[in-house]
Amino acid sequence: MLSWLAEQKIAEAMRQGEFDNLPGEGKPLTIEDLSGVPEELRMAYKVMKNAGYVPEEIQLSQDLVRLDDLIAACGDGPELWALQRKRSEQQLRFNMLADQRGLQHNAAFRQYEGVIRERLE
């Protein structure tokens, strides 16, 4: 009964042109890969993302990548040392957060991080 009612409302809205000229009309949908997010957390993740909230571990991992790029582009000297120190602090915070939240895949990544980085370079 509920699905029939929904179909009727959609059909009525289509007849009235409420779906005409919507942003992105005629363009393919962008499908997000949420395979890394546990199924029971996907809806909450989407709500937070749509509200502009980024979980701290995601922000930290983005910061680590950015710092790695800055370190790779930086010459020797005080600036390099400051970036390396900041990266170490961010990595420590990320590791502590991962341990607190029980993110086991991070422990495995940390164990093989050097090997992975060598292969990507």
Furnish the topology, listing elements before pairings.
Blueprint: H1 2-15, H2 42-50, H3 56-73, H4 78-101, H5 104-120
Helix pairs in contact: 3-4
Compact summary:
The protein has five helices and no strands.
- Span of the ends, CA to CA: 57 Å
User: What is the number of helices?
Assistant: 5
| Uncertain regions spanning at least 5 consecutive residues | none
Q: How would you spell out the order of helices and strands?
A: HHHHH
| Percent range of helical residues | 55-70%
| Count of distinct strands | 0
Backbone shape: elongated
Oligomer: single chain
3D structure, described in words:
With 121 residues, the chain is mostly helical. Helix content is 68%, strand content 0%. It contains five helices and no strands. The protein has helices at 2-15, 42-50, 56-73, 78-101, 104-120. Helix 3 packs antiparallel against helix 4 (78-101). The longest helix has 24 residues, at 78-101. It is elongated. The protein starts with a helix and ends with a helix. The model has no long low-confidence stretch (mean pLDDT 81).
